[in-house]
Amino acid sequence: MAKNTNIRISLPAVCFVWQIAMIILFGVFIRYNEESETRWIEHRRRKNISTNLENDFYYRYPSFQDVHVMIFVGFGFLMTFLKRYSFGGVGFNFLIAAFGIQWALLMQGWFHYLDENDGKIKIGVENLINADFCVAGCLIAYGACLGKVSPVQLMVLTLFGVTLFAVEEYIILELLHAKDPGGSMVIHTFGAYYGLTISWVLYRPMLSQSRHLQGSVYHSDVFAMIGTLFLWMYWPSFNSAIADHGDGQHRAVINTYLALAASVLTTFAISSISQKHGKLDMVHIQNATLAGGVAMGTASEFMITPYGSLIVGFCSGIISTFGYLFVTPFMEKTLKIQDTCGIHNLHAMPGVIGGIIGAITAASASESVYGQEGLINTFDFKEAVANRTVNIQGGYQAAGLFVAIAFGLVGGALVGGILKLPIWGDPADANCFDDEVPEDEDENILSRHPNMNHTRGMPDA
């Protein structure tokens, strides 16, 4: 139920108006690129390409499939842990992802893929991957607000989030020429601080009215583990999807794979130590096990070495798990940030770690390790930055991290202020985290599992 207001913008109106607007804008601006239109045959002949297998589709589509599954299944089911908000968790994830990828294709197209000759945006399979990446930042932000905002508020959050993402991505990747193939800075750090700041602005002092709904039950945790496993399995594709063909993608997969494996071991260890009788907390297992993938995003293409990848995963798993144990309760009690999914522990802290690792690894790169051509190719030391040294590159990598944090904090504060307007139909405090599931389902949940109440964003009263 929404708060009393004379004007309320409805979800059907937003969906219909938005889709009509997208049809018009796509008609004006979006076209197929040379590898996805029928003139590909002419392009092959002109570029002396011998086979259709050289089409970017065959390089990128397997990674696109994996990333697409992560966005809709991985992120969606990861948010089903709440005992009475599983429908909303996976359903609204579906809604805002489909909403956001359309706007992302336009926003990223205007910044990166606009053809100066005809003013059109030319898209192919790599644009679809980048649109999913863009939406991922908004889904991360959604995690901080899960169960506390209306679907219309989520669409507004996504509209501005995609816009901010496109701008900060352009600054970091194009103007600063920083490398961030797996998005530790551009996706995770920005998305996390964007969502956390919005949650801080929308702080609900009376949220205790729905405290009995702010935890999980046995079966909701099992569903959330589906999301975890999909994300964990496909994260190497996420970090390598837009990396350089060949050795860059190959190295990104290896580095991410190892970091993820290490973060699982440390998460299980810390979780067992922290719980009575050595039992595990599913909050940690569902989230901190993924921290290695987040932290490896920026440096995934770099020559960080296999044992270096294990170190990254080892440290990020520990830090993320301790975040759930100590940082999240502190944030709510002291900073007034109600982080439903604990995105600060899974995305913000590992994202910052990833940005720092990227800066250090870039600054310490050498020709003896990378080779002369390998160094140029890995960091794209060409054209305007052909004379850039690795020390300077490390400085620009660090600058990129600060840009991501700044956009998240400032953008989140501004968008949070917009979302406080009563026209969006936000739920009352007593109705948060409540899908209004069928009554018999509700009774079964409460009667069968009266003591199951794992929480991730909310400390016990």
TrEMBL record:
Residues annotated as transmembrane: 9-30, 63-82, 94-113, 128-147, 154-173, 185-203, 215-234, 254-273, 285-304, 310-327, 398-419
Primary location group: membrane
Gene Ontology process terms (BP): ammonium homeostasis
Localization, UniProt: Cell membrane
Keywords for the protein's UniProt record, in alphabetical order: Ammonia transport, Cell membrane, Glycoprotein, Membrane, Transmembrane, Transmembrane helix, Transport
InterPro entries (alphabetical): Ammonium/urea_transptr, NH4_transpt_AmtB-like_dom, RhesusRHD
GO cellular component: plasma membrane
Cross-referenced Pfam families: Ammonium_transp
Boundaries of every Ammonium transporter AmtB-like domain copy: 55-426
Keyword Nucleotidyltransferase: no
Family as reported in the entry's similarity comment: Belongs to the ammonium transporter (TC 2.A.49) family. Rh subfamily.
Its biological purpose: Functions as an ammonia transporter. May play a role in the elimination of ammonia in the gill.
Quaternary context: Homotrimer.
Record-given protein name: Ammonium transporter Rh type C 1-like
Gene of this entry: LOC107667994
